[in-house]
Amino acid sequence: MHGVPVPDPYRWLEDPDDPATKDWLEAQEGLFAAELGALPGREGFRSRIAELLKSGTVGAPVWRGDRHFFMRRTPEQEHAVLYTVDPDGTERALLDPMALDPTGLTTLDTWQPDKEGRLLAYQISVGGDEESSLYVMDVAFGSRIEGPIDRCRYSPVAWLPGGEAFYYVRRLPSTEVPEGEEQYHRRVYLHRVGTSTEEDVLVFGHGMEKTNYYGVTVSRDGRWLQISASRGTAPRNDLWVADLEASSPEAPELVVVQEGVDAQSSLHFGRDGRLYVFTDRDAPRSRVCVTDPATPQFEHWRDLIPQDPEAVLTDFAILDDLDRPVMLVGWTRHAISEISVHDLVTGERIGEVPTPGLGAIGGISERPEGGHEAWFGYTDNTTPPTIQRYDARTGETTLWAASPGAVEVPAVDTEQVTYRSADGTEVHMLVISKPGVTGPRPTILYGYGGFGISMTPGYSASILTWVEAGGTYAIAQLRGGGEEGEEWHRAGMLANKQNVFDDLHAAAEHLISTGVTTSERLAISGGSNGGLLVGAALTQRPDLYAAVVCSAPLLDMVRYERFGLGATWNVEYGSAEKPDEFAWLHAYSPYHHVREGVSYPATLFTVFQSDTRVHPLHAWKTCAALQHAQTADRPILLRNETEVGHGARAVSKTVELAADQLTFLAHHTGLTS
Fold first, then answer.
1. 602: confidence class by pLDDT, cuts 50, 70, 90
2. How far apart are CA 169 and CA 186, in angstroms?
């Protein structure tokens, strides 16, 4: 390619239907079972992870008048269930994935009640494919009244008042797009409840970029329509708004808010008549601006909550049933969450919201019609998810709902440390250990480093099980993530991707130099983009790591755009079709940097055959290459799981996967507890 020879000896493994591939996978299954079956401790890990997951989960409420909706998983449930609480206080289960499908293979992907809380749009998928068929339910009766509407993967739903119609996003039929592009070509449609989708009105997207994702919202009063477009996962969007009082919902007259601008922005139409703009334009750590809805363009914006020099602005909510209306603003400071209170008119900071500890806060929500209360999720390394309620009249935060299961959580010590990467950049890392442990010990180093996603503290049964057994777990906040804002993200994408790998190597060296571990006791773990991270790490520095778990990874970076959703990620990684970007990709592509005669770490690839985001071929090909090249007496194994995908899965499948991973890492780092 571009004059560079690119060996690809295992291309035949790209075809899962080839008999040779099936034979190879069957042989790998036998090898994995034999190797893992000989290792001690798996049942202990499995039982403890399962016990800690009996904490269950709980989600923040979504209010519609006097009714609210929320998710909860009790200790015995495989999946979280969607509940509603009626105005009289009666709680009812609306959607239980296990009732829909007792096999546990069906997942509830997303849901959105209408503005009155009478109808509910929801999306489900089966077997991990994340394809999302859309349905509509009558909330009062719990009965399905529409659906399925297929091809709705990653579709937002924006209801018009009255519940008679909604905007949504749907892919074109496969018969109308070029072969190989079936996952792309989305459009925004208006659907009227009770009519055939054949009558849906195409509102937006025709003739635009094939990999575009679209966002669509309608203001609470139904007047303002907002549509955004992002090319794939690009950290920028184009944005339009239409006044539905001045034009029809079927043919909205869209006005440009921003187009061709290297920034992300979104709009919130306030109950006070002002337009609030959440943006990282000229503010890589983000800010909130205000303007008049009639003049939504950049030149009319004025700062309400300016960019902070250190913290990243993540969220806001407006509480206006007060003598002095306020805005609650969510921040992360080196990935630790906090909430400040500001005067809604001037933006002046006038206080802060008490939070339970140094952890992660979910979205801040309020009642759509206004009020003095807000709700937010909270978790940290030892606290299962909780929902907190803040009362702006009293300034107090109280527990509103806890995860329903009572579990005995082990004590851990969490330390936030800083270290310097190869180019001198300061990077933060959370190091979680059992209280009182000293000396080098088996350690798992985890990272992600991509797509602006932040590694924040959170309850993890797997981490707690590892630490309780005497190991240490470290989470590095690498470049490419969002922990320090958009500049931090861009310092680890495209031509800068090597910075992410350097940050991980430097984290490992810091853990070794400070006596936490040794290279013989150090493992690395990552999934998806984090699988690419650890794949690059094991091929660049095989001497530094004793063991690797590489889950659902991208590893053939020369051909990644041809499979799954790969073409939507070339805005993050680059495209091999362009000579300069091919050079970036080929320089680190893990599959292409496996070398014969090298002593590689013990490596476990875990992949999911129904994964429609990242095709398992990446792991298959690289596993084969490593097995051929390996000179050390350390195994290269593949755990190939069927009927699950990249995202949500039943709890029991989560337990089995985590137990296998910890058993493998414990054996190869010397964790014997």
1. very high
2. 6
pLDDT reported for residue 647? 87
586 is catalytic: no
Structure tokens at 84: 């509603």
Reported as a single tens digit per residue, the pLDDT across 118-165 is 999 999 999 999 999 999 999 999 999 999 999 999 999 999 999 999
The yes-or-no answer on residue 47 being catalytic is no
d(CA 485, CA 209): 27
| Distance (Å, whole) CA 527 – CA 540 | 18
Give the integer Cα–Cα distance in Å for 428 and 441.
21
**Beta partners for residue 59, in sequence order:** none
**pLDDT tens digit string along 458-513?**
999 999 999 999 999 999 999 999 999 999 999 999 999 999 999 999 999 999 99
What is the number of other CB atoms lying within 10 angstroms of the CB of residue 368? 16
What does the pLDDT look like over 106-118, one tens digit per residue?
Answer: 999 999 999 999 9
Question: Residue 214 in 3-state DSSP?
Answer: strand
CA distance 41 to 60: 37
Paired tokens of 538: 């094991």
pLDDT at 25: 97
Q: How far is CA 110 from CA 113, 159, 162, 183, in A?
A: 11, 14, 21, 19
pTM attached to this predicted model: 0.96
Residues 433, 528, 551, 589: which is the catalytic one?
Answer: 528
Burial 209-226 (b: 16+ CB within 10 A, else e): bbbbbbbbbbbbeeebbb
pLDDT digits (tens, 9 = 90+) for 421-434: 999 999 999 999 99
Nearest to 525 by CA among 615, 444, 588, 638: 444
Segments of 12-118 assigned E as strands: 57-58, 62-64, 67-73, 81-85, 91-95, 106-113
Catalytic hit among 510, 618, 646, 667 = 646
